[in-house]
């Protein structure tokens, strides 16, 4: 099976690296093209991938055609590759905010299409990807397309109507969690840790907390209660964070993310 990537930016690279680590397909069966020849050729040669001269060539030579460009240019790129897409190929879009209806409108109504929303944790097999197939993608073909993402982490099949919220609390939230880790780390620096030490401590704590939460099957609130000793330090910190507007700040950030991805701001 050949997997072609149109665009080799942050998200495509994370998936490609995840696929290579999982040995999902041989490196040469991953085809790439992007805007800048020096970029995609260098990247392909670094990892043994197969560069292609054009977006249309990627579409022509691939079984799975992954559209990994920013939303603003997706329509132009689909116009370029439209002639090479057929019912024998699966188009996988990971472009935020572009619906299956719109993808069908920009291509052909009989094409098998998987709309997806991954996150960059795919690079280390820890991805969280939402997928939704159109009516033309079924059975083994659908399983094949989803298996690409399953090789790089968890997959959830969702209604399209859930995508913008999913994107905010997963795709974008990778950055928000890192923002939190960086905030903890800066607090450590304030009190004398080096940035490197503090970041290591904060990142390991975040990782451990997520793993413990999932392993225990408890709610986050229950975990907070376990850490908060009666009359202790943690509850004092939680209350101060709440006073400073921690929860409303997070919800406001998610609201803004959803508004941007749905074009409602
Ligand atoms: N970053 C993330 O965490 C996530 C991103 N996404 C989605 O992924 C998509 C890409 O985002 P991201 O990877 O962050 O963006 P980047 O800017 O990192 O990558 C965009 C890629 O598109 C390429 N490109 C630009 N113009 C063309 C063209 N005409 N033909 C072919 N390739 C072209 C660029 O080429 P070159 O490198 O040569 O300049 C680059 O490789 C977006 O639609 C976004 O919504 C979805 C979930 C998470
Ligand atoms: O910032 C963005 O637009 C993309 C979508 C989800 C994560 N990154």
TrEMBL record:
Matches recorded under Gene3D superfamilies: NAD(P)-binding Rossmann-like Domain, ProC C-terminal domain-like
Source organism of this protein record: Lentilactobacillus parakefiri
Residues spanning the signal sequence: none
NCBIfam families recorded: proC
Protein name: Pyrroline-5-carboxylate reductase
Catalytic activity: L-proline + NADP(+) = (S)-1-pyrroline-5-carboxylate + NADPH + 2 H(+); L-proline + NAD(+) = (S)-1-pyrroline-5-carboxylate + NADH + 2 H(+)
GO biological process: L-proline biosynthetic process
Involved pathway(s): Amino-acid biosynthesis; L-proline biosynthesis; L-proline from L-glutamate 5-semialdehyde: step 1/1
Residues annotated as binding NADP(+): 6-11, 34, 68-71
Its biological purpose: Catalyzes the reduction of 1-pyrroline-5-carboxylate (PCA) to L-proline.
